[in-house]
Structure formats: C-alpha cells, structure tokens
Amino acid sequence: MSDYTTLVSDAEAFYGDLAVNNTKAWWQENKGTYDTKLKAPALALLEEISAPLATLSDLPVTPKLFRPHRDVRFSKDKTPYNTHLHMMWTLRSEAPQNPVFFFGIGRDYVTTGAGIMGFDKPVLLNWRQMVDLDTDRIVGVTNDLAAQGFKLREPALKRVPSPYDKDHRAAELLRMKGMVASRDVAGDGPLPAQIMGGFEALWPLNALLISIAEA
Prior knowledge:
alpha+beta, 6 strands
C-alpha cells in the first residue's frame, strides 16, 4: 500500500499555485511535481480502491485518472490546465449504461460521489418510469443519502416533464436528466478507508441505477 498522507495537501498547494499561473510555461516547469506528488499516488490510489470496490459491487471495475489538460475548443475560458485532481471508477455490469464512483480534490473541496452524470435516452425513460411507479423505493434511497450528508446534483429541468403531474411527490427526481450524489470526504484514518466509507454509503444508489438501466 502507498502512503497518501500528503496527497490532499500536496494537491491543494499545487492547484492553488496553478490557478494563478495557468500557463504552459509554468506547467512544464512544475510537471515533475505533478508527476511525483500527484499523478503517481493518484494512480496507486485508483488501483488500491479498485479491489474493495469490486468486492462491494461484485462487478469488474475500470479506474481512470482524468487528464490535467482542459478541452478548450468550445470554452470561453482558454486556460490550458484543470485546477483539480479527479479520479473515477466505472462499474462494468451488463446494463447499457453504467454508473461510476468518483473522488476529487480541488482547491476548496475533497469529495466522494457516485451516479450517472447524464442518462442516455433509454435510461432516462426508464428512470422516469421507475420514479413514477416505484416512488417509495427511490425516494427512500435518496433520503438515506441525504441523511448521511450527501447532496444531489440540481435537476436539469425547470418543469416536470410530461406526462407526469407537476405536483408529483418525486417532482425533483423527475426533473433530473442524470443522478449524482456527493459529499465532502468524512471520517478518520487512511485516505483509502475514508474514500471507501463514502463509496459504501453510495453503493445503494449505484445498485439502483444499474437495476433501472437494465429494466
């Protein structure tokens, strides 16, 4: 096992400096710090979390470290580098669309989360049908997450889509086009244990999303 005791503080310091020096020249000068203090431990953390996550979900897991470069082709912000370190573990079920777990360190946050960022059209239709037909189960899962400090991503739609009633008791869930829950990393002990604590709490959400995608 690797030592991740300084990963969070190293990332916060590195991205604090990058935020005020977001240029190719600064990056090239400091790339060695990124490679040794951020990238190397992040890759090790991805692998270390994969095994217990596969045990938790009983599914194969594909880890990913997001690249440091930003895609600026369609953005007004042309700064070339991300000011955060993001990791993701994708579950590989037989569903047409699979949920993920994620861990992120930014200048002002350290979070764990899970879900599907944006539903594919068939999964979106399944989601709405299941929210309507099995409201108690789905609201129960989201309420349990809220009780543990997780926040849901804001709904993408301003209005409840037809043919559902605008006063539906799960109106907020019907207005979503994806389902993601996240919270600040909580707990004591080694960083992998803190992350897995969040993922264990989030597993009912991802299990629900797999069942809905497979429906």
